[in-house]
Design brief:
449 residues, alpha/beta, six-stranded mixed β-sheet, three-stranded antiparallel β-sheet, 14 helices, 11 strands, globular
Amino acid sequence: MSNYILAIGIDKYPNCTKLNNAARDINNMIDVLTESYDFEKSNITMLIDEKATLEGITNELENYLASQEENDNLLILYSGHGDFDELLQMGYILPYEATPYSKATYLPYSTLFSYIKAFKSHHILLISDSCYSGSVFTPYRKVETSKEKLDKIPSKWAITSGRLEPVSDGEPGKNSPFAEAIIKVLEENQSLLSVSELSNKVLSEVAEKVDQIPRGEPLQSFGHKGGEFIFSVKSSPKKTTKSKVSKESAERQELIDLIKAHYDLEGKIEEAENENKAGTIRRLEREKESLKNILNKELIKELEIHKNNISKESQKPDNLPKEYIQKSIEIQDIRKAKNKVVREQKYNDAAILRDKEKLLEKEIDGLLNYAELVDNLTLSGGSLYRDYFMCQFLIQTRSNIKFDKRDRIEAIFGRILFYDLSFRHGFISKYVYEDSRRKIVDILKKDLT
């Protein structure tokens, strides 16, 4: 798995107030990442000052859109001016040529997040040191999970230097308080460091020194699936703890406890309805909705973990035609080659490879009767994880499946797993289980075709 960095730092704004330390902060963070962690200088793209125009940033985002693969990680670093529109409730990055109060010259965070959602990368982490950068988040609640497990699950996170507030650039010649804290935490760390740990330590460091509060959370609306990027120190390979089995058992028990809490809430709501307690019903329904959101994310986590384990064992589904497998591997090879030439800025070669990729995608669609294949899926309790792995494999090779449909398919698989675990642990009867499962499987098969 390769780690890439897109680094943007702007001090010398021609139309806005100049900053003191943005480029220094970016360079110093990259120094510690390349010296102490699994980041190589050859995988870093630097946009400093006049290179960080709106066009320059957009072009690099387009390059990553074309080149990132599912086994790549992408870290986006931004240090520069930011703005926030109260009326639109929208945050912005200010590129090099930005003109104050002219939003046509700004880069909206919403545009950046559209790219982040579309990137295929396994982990994506945005670290933004700018004013009002905290406008990027949606509500989130964390369920504790081991670092080894979190690293396997795809994630999209952001750490920002503040919330809806101006932030300090620091004294000239020194790092900003936010960058200084990140560098300090990374330098002092001696083992595996998760994104959530990094953000918590940075928050504590910054809040003690200046009047701003950093924030670090998942980007829930942009493809986050529950994992975290884990910073791995070069000198110490990733460790497996003796208590791995017990940790996995504890994490599965957390999922079962969430399912039990769901049914407990349903029982309380039924009691409140029988007693006509409207206020209690509304409160419990809100609680149930919040729990449902958390539970859905944990179910997707469980599916992703098993998918990754199956992928390590077999690399590919065993019930697909050999020619399909062969061409899907060719597509992956072409995408890797395209990744390489894009990095070398050989855009004509990249265009040729892109055309080959599109042609292969058309050919591969003609090799399968998807309706028949989907109809033959057993989707039983014993085959669910392998069926999920196969469906994700198919989605990976079919670029015409849109993100909202991919998300919906994942959510339906999660719902099937929910019913499987509910029945297995005695929360529902056999008749409710079979009826509910049959209906949701029918919905899934329609979506897959």
